[in-house]
Here is the input.
Amino acid sequence: MRPFTFVAPASAQEAVRLLAEGDGRARPIAGGSDLLGELKEGTAACDRLVSLAGLPGLAAIEETACAAAIGAMATVEALVAHRFGNPGFRILSEAAQGVATPEIRNVGTVGGNLCQRPRCWYYRNALFRCLKRGGTDCPAVEGHNKYLAILGAHRCYIVHPSDLAPPLVALDASVEVLGPAGARWLPLRDFFVGPERDLLRENVLADGEIVLRVMVPAPPAGWRGTYVKARERTAGDFPMVSVAAGFAQEGGAARHARIVLGAVAPVPWRAPAAEGVLEGRPVTAERAAQAAEAALAGAQPMTGNAYKLDVARALIARTILALAAPPK
Ligand SMILES: Cc1cc2nc3c(=O)[nH]c(=O)nc-3n(C[C@H](O)[C@H](O)[C@H](O)COP(=O)(O)OP(=O)(O)OC[C@H]3O[C@@H](n4cnc5c(N)ncnc54)[C@H](O)[C@@H]3O)c2cc1C
Here is the structure.
């Protein structure tokens, strides 16, 4: 393992300054559950780790009538345990509950979960120089692509691994980012970028920028959401396909419909066409199936992952129908 220094700033501004001084060779570290693995495996390298652990106020989860604010250093387990007053926010605790294992949820943070790197076997293997690590082609095209993208890929076929991102996108969350030029807010849906825009990164963070918190506006009254994840093992596994879905039911019709898929594309995959199928109409089994078809329009499976289409179709339709049933 290459040597590096470890610094523990006392403020977010100092963290940003220490990252900027690193001249592209410094990395922020939160819980370390992803980054330390990368450093050990040699798929990432840095000269300086800038710890975000001591930054004041970033571990809080707060809620008002209008919004929930989740600090980037809140652990995934804190999100599981948080008792949200607004039932519309509970999709976040549900999604957090399905992340990894208790050990990882206790150290892994919300910011780290959103900024974690892809799990593609080729990216994670230092012996391959794939596109994401500066190479010229994607070994997965003719190799193992069972877990990779069926939508939105462009030369590189990673899927975004985060379980928290789809429900946060469904809830129209924004992120606060701090960098050398100051702070900025941006919608989370614009935070993630696919390989058509940047092969080397999965989000818009520039060197030296960190996520401070996530702001989630309160969903409309009566909105209920759920997050369902298909995986090979019942615990400790990344999703093969996941769906964050939600809507309110007014006069028997779905309103404010949201469908966001996980693990099918390089970014959390919002499906406006599927939302349009549901919007303003009663939810029936036929309409749920139509929404699933609409969500997957344009999918291009690889040699080993066409099964994802069947799994996604079933998961989306079942999730919509379960949401339409009266709450138990
Ligand atoms: C065995 C295993 C199983 C897992 N299963 C799942 C799963 O099922 N679902 C799921 O969603 N995740 C899963 N994960 C990923 C896990 O949730 C993440 O590793 C964790 O949330 C990352 O948080 P962290 O604080 O440890 O991040 P770190 O490892 O500290 O950082 C991860 C990356 O984000 C960057 N970063 C961290 N915080 C910030 C910030 N505030 N601003 C800017 N950049 C930042 C770091 O530089 C690094 O590149 C799994 C991980 C493992 C090891």
About this structure: Residues 27-35, 52, 72, 76, 99-100, 104, 107-109, 111-113, 115-117, 161-163, 205, 210-211, 236-238 surround flavin-adenine dinucleotide (CB under 6 Å). DSSP finds eleven helices and twelve strands in the chain. Residues 242 and 262 are 5 Å apart (CA to CA). The longest helix spans residues 307-324.
